[in-house]
Amino acid sequence: MLRIPKSVDYGVLILLTLFESEDQMLSAKEIATRCGVSYQQVAKLLKMLVKNALVHSKQGAQGGYSLSPEKANLNLEEIYQALEGPFSFAECMDKHVAGSNGCKVDPTCRLKPHLAIINQAIQSVCRSLTLKDISRSRHRKPELPFPLGVAL
Predict the structure, then answer these.
(1) Cβ-count burial of 98 within 10 angstroms (0-12 exposed, 13-18 middle, 19+ buried)?
(2) Are 35 and 17 in contact (CB under 8 A)?
(3) How far apart, in whole angstroms, are the C-alpha atoms of residue 58 and residue 71?
(4) pLDDT at residue 150 greater than cutoff 60
(5) Distance of CA 149 to the CA centre of its chain
(6) pLDDT for 56-82, tens place per residue?
(7) Which CATH class is domain 6-139?
(8) Cα–Cα distance, 108 to 24 (Å, whole number)
């Protein structure tokens, strides 16, 4: 079954920690402690998040990492893309994979249109779920953005 890569899982935890710390700068060590993730993993992911402008870093005694206020509406699709590249449910859906259009059964594939629907549904849900939503769901059960069984 489909699994979220650990980099995205941990990346969301890091971003939530920064989001919920408001304007406070946090060290990588503090983030690792709060998230329950190894310092090495956190440092590696913070580097990627800074590179992709999702997180700000500041050197020095008063330094650390923070999430800028406009990133509160950052969605799961944007986080996934920053850490793993474009999402694709199946390799044949990924326009960025060399040879993905070279599938031997592509011209007669009856599954590809259905995979495309699944791919679009997952992307739609990820696009609709923001850090703010995830943070709010800590105190209440999250809801689907659409009823199960309803086509997007």
Answers:
(1) exposed
(2) yes
(3) 17
(4) no
(5) 25
(6) 999 988 899 999 767 889 999 999 999
(7) mainly alpha
(8) 55
DSSP H stretches of helix in the chain: 6-20, 28-35, 39-51, 76-84, 112-128, 131-136
Residue 145 one-letter amino acid: P
Backbone angles phi, psi at 108, to 5 degrees: -115, 10
The predicted model scores a pTM of 0.82
115-130: average pLDDT: 88
> What are the φ/ψ torsions at residue 90 (nearest 5 degrees)?
-135, 150
| 86-99 pLDDT, tens digit each | 887 777 776 655 44
Residue whose structure tokens are 């850090």: 131
> Encoding tokens for residue 107?
């011209």
